[in-house]
Design a protein that fits this description.
The complex is a heterodimer of chains A (367) and B (671). Chain A has 367 residues and is an alpha/beta fold. Chain A contains 14 helices and 13 strands. The longest helix of chain A has 22 residues. The relative contact order of chain A is 0.15. The N terminus of chain A is likely disordered. Chain B has 671 residues and is mainly α. In chain B, helix 13 packs parallel to helix 15. Classes of the chains: A alpha/beta (367), B mainly alpha (671). At the A-B interface, helix 1, helix 2, strand 2, strand 6 and strand 7 of A face helix 2, helix 3, helix 16, helix 18 and helix 19 of B. Chain B: Pfam families: TctA (PF01970).
Amino acid sequence: MNHLSATRRVALSLCAVSALALTAGLPQTAHADLAGETVEFVIPFSESGGSARWANFFAPLLSEALDGNPTTVVVYRPGAGSTAGANWFQENQGDNDGTLIFGTSGSTQFPYLLRDPRVRYEYRDWIPVLASGTGGVVYLPADLGARFDGDMDDLQDEFFIFGSQGATTLDLVPLLAFRMLGLQVEPVFGIEGRGDGRLMFERGEANIDYQTSSAYIASVQPLVDQGLAVPVMSWGILDDDGNIVRDPTFPDIPTFAEICEATAGCETEGTAWEAWRAFFVSGFAAQKLVYLPGGTAPEVVALYEEALAEILARPDFDEISAAELGVYPQMIGEAAVVAHEAAITVSDEARQFVLDWLREDYGVTLE
Amino acid sequence: MDILNVALPALGEALTLLFQPQQLMFLCAGVLLGLSIGVLPGLGGIAGLSLVLPFMFGMDPVAGLALMVGLIAVIPTSDTFSSVLLGIPGSSASQATVLDGFPLARKGEAGRALAAAFVSSLYGGLFGAMILTCIIFVARPLILAFGLPEMMMITILGMSMVAILAGRVPLKGVIACGLGLLLGTIGSAPAGGSLRMSTYDIPYLVDGFSLVIVGLGIYAIPEVVSLLRQDKPIAGAGKLGRGWLHGLRDWWNNKWLSTKCAAIGVVVGVIPGLGGSVVDWIAYGYAVQSTKDREKFGQGDIRGVIAPESSNNAKEGGGLVPTLIFGIPGSGSMAVFLGGLALLGMSPGPAMIRQDLDITYTIVWSLALANVIGAGLCVLLSNQIAKLTTIRFTLLAPFLFMMIAFAAFQSRQSLGDLVALVGIGLIGILLRRFDFSRPAFLIGFVLSHQAEQFTNMATQIASARFRRSFEAGLDYIVSPITVTILVLTVLSIVIGIRQSKNIRENIETYTGTKRAPFLFMLVVTAYVGVAIVDAATISRFGDKVFPLTVGIATMIACLVLLVRMMRRPETDDAFIDLESGGADAEAPHGLWRTLSWFLGLLILSGLFGLVIALAIFFVTFFRLRARLSWLSAVLYAAAGIGFILFLANVLGRDFPPGLLQEYTNLPWPLR
């Protein structure tokens, strides 16, 4: 048996040495309120992807701004298209002392809006403290882009192939937009992430694609610069009155609303437009939200609101966030509540429209 | 020349960036961490990287890279320990190593196997780093040429390896592979989300089974249970036998095999999605196909260790190619690595390779250096760690059960993980007992998801193109690459079937009465039947066609085998039953009684959570089964629990909770 314990000692000391090397140099400060606590920032996604990046951007800032400088760690609970993690949060609301916060994304909102049977969570039980928006850009290959002149009228007879993660994911927004524009788009379902869609586009297997803003800037802009891709429209952003206006990150790219107006047969009113708008808000304009558990005491909520206000007021916030998140509104306080409300609300008529369309066009049902 | 003007200076700059005391320290920390994680059975790159991820944000990019690359580079080196010594894959990349490495350990040649494995790992790792260096410059057009039809063909090529690993009765290999494929389709369909063999009432099933659990269940549990029944040290003689010099010589004698397998590793690693869990099998299959005297494979042929170990380190270099060039992860651990890069403020892709070539090349240097340090440390430690095999197995087994349960729980962090583990473990035990090829089963499972995805997507695109014009469609499917791979696939199947009789997972076989094997086949057939009916009721065509096709093919194989079973006498190979003779039949402890120890641990965990359950399990097991004194039993139990608590604490992990935890609010680790 002594052989075994010798091995174990070796393994233990290896672990210990590595752990020491890792933890050395971490600041250990402490005072008032959340002092000495560890805040778990749970996201229902894996370590790769936009939500991880977003959460890890805010985690150290929160640690710095919250009273008592608690250690803030990001905890990943992926599964079932993020519904597993959200169900977990619904059931485990922690001790309501501000040591547990939860970050959602459009992929968490959509199943909720569509009443997916996997959804056992209720957004209205939670307290929103931050809402982050993002945008998206649709682009075409150079040859098709040359035929684009501000509307889609000339591209109606083209056959498009679009790599998609699934009709009920964030791709619902572009798919519905394509349908409203009258484009003949055949989605190829089952890709694992938007990056796969871009790769299909680069290989010439797909001939229409979209990327969210940060991915567009990092990976598609070089293609545009080399003349391999042409941006045609962005989703736009919401202004203070709730109108869709041009995305400040892409001021030269027209919005879907503009293209739709210019294209025959596409209308910016009516059920289809209402449905598109609701899912656009939930999936992009207010894509990522931070929640506290429902029973959290008002003073703890205030603690977070102050901390987030402090973060947004940092003189260098625009600079550091532009690199990580793009130039998008970060909504706190009352604005976060309004955004949260918009992100989880869809009229019954619009929902039914989307469900019918998903069933008819793609044979996708949520039962 | 571009390479002379840009690449060489960048390589030099990268070297100076890395060779600073701080960066080297982080590299060494990564290597040590990687070695420790790799030694533990079942834990691999994903667990290791997840552990360092929280520290990445805001770190110096070169230091952060050194830490992460150091970690992933050496896991395929040290995971050999548990594959060879315990018969449990240390991570998914060294499953094939078990096939020959473990028999070597049982023959008392553990030191030799380990040494050969480490040299192969070192060589493979350096080879991979070298290829990565060149590929960063030339591979972009090559990777763009790999579209969906090419990926689909590569997946099929991977599956053709089943032929060589099918065992004595090829039909049984087909059935095993079919069952693996069907297991992989359980859950919500990747394309349309239709449920297959699952319901929303059991949310665990909706996500399907994870590779960690299937790997542990199919390999680890049957071996642990079988060894436990015999109650002997792993190395029967209790001696280490020939040492590491011999292993070095073995490697030198097989240096060309090692080179070829390293090349296979790089190529498989480069293909996004194929990943580390099949590369060792492909290399192993190649080794068997390409050698003349293949009788000893599966019984402790050193080439069966050299081949997978050369390939699995090389694949990290290959896997970094798509990860860095496109930001497309080549495997599960590469996906986490990508997350880490994002946290360091880097977005992998063409831009990074153009603008940050020096930083990109620090990855290459880190990879090479980490392999050297890792292999060196492992060789130094190998003789010490090899002594594990001389311990009476009954004293080791509870700790292995503990590690297996803990590793399995990391997959979904639900009690369902443990239930799935035992369920799949039972399948593994029965497959082993009736001589169905477990590698074939696992290849089926691993490739199931991709095979379905790529086939579906390629078909969708191809049909859209055919609608436009026949040439456009044909042009899409028939490329030089697909044709080449098709030829390779056919060759691989033909050669494979001819040679498969030479690869034996179980050395001696025994046939008993017809009843048990026939009953097992009936149950298997019934399951396949249910799966077919279930698939047929799915309304969305794209979601049902794959399980339906696989199900029907498996069903045909099942029926043919059943007919053969009815017509042949009970001495036929179709009736192999390890319980009717040899080591298993003579074992002092029964199969079901031994398995019920594990089942007891599961039930206890369901009631009291894993930590309390382990305490009860350890003391009872050491006292009743191992017949230790009360004092030793308690001491051993305390040591085991102390270790797992330390590990969970360092990794920041929780333990499976039970019913008790539902009603009470206990502090960590009992929580």
